[in-house]
Specification:
Layout: H1 2-14, H2 16-38, H3 46-72, H4 75-82, H5 85-97, H6 103-120, E1 121-122, E2 125-129, H7 133-157, H8 159-173
Antiparallel strand pairs: 1-2
Length: about 170
């Protein structure tokens, strides 16, 4: 949300990788402090470590795709479109995590898809999509998978440890 509005200028002025690096240095430090002050460090089990590595890898690809999308396209178009990842998360949650939706949630997801397509269309020309939509599409899939992986990780490690491990892991990859 609000952080999306703050990234456009750093990306344009310093480049995608510098903007990502700055963002992840900051979040890694904050998440470490959160673990130290509000939790205890939990070492992941072997199975949890594999899931954690998958989340880190997918999360790194998704955030890189998002920053590339913002670099190429209009933030006001790319960010809302990328947030269609909620639909992918819903689908994965239903298929693999055993969650269910009511009629209103299904209706809400359909509205998200409809308006996401409208946002992506280039100034009313149905044959052309806005710049950055290709990378934003990769972000949709990546974030959808990433957010779905968070549930079992948080159940095992807690919110603070999961955040610290993932943020620092993505920082190390990028």
């Amino acid at each position: 949300g609000g952080s999306n509005a703050l990234i456009k200028n750093p990306i344009k002025n310093h480049g995608v990788f510098s903007a990502i690096t700055f963002s992840y240095v900051f979040t890694t430090i904050l998440s470490f402090l959160a673990v130290v002050f509000f939790s205890t460090i939990i070492i992941p089990t072997a199975n949890t470590l594999l899931l954690l590595l998958a989340a880190i890898f997918v999360g790194a690809i998704a955030i890189l795709s998002f920053f590339m999308a913002v670099n190429e396209g209009e933030l006001s178009i790319v960010a809302p479109f990328a947030n269609l990842s909620a639909v992918v998360t819903i689908i994965i949650s239903i298929l693999f995590l055993g969650e269910s939706l009511g009629f209103l949630q299904i209706f809400g997801a359909a509205i998200l898809i409809f308006f996401g397509i409208i946002i992506a269309i280039n100034k009313g020309d149905i044959k052309n999509f806005e710049k950055g939509i290709f990378y934003a599409s990769a972000t949709i899939i990546g974030w959808g998978i990433y957010y779905s992986l968070l549930k079992p990780l948080i159940a095992e490690l807690g919110a603070y440890n999961t955040t610290f491990y993932i943020e620092s892991g993505i920082f190390l990859i990028i």
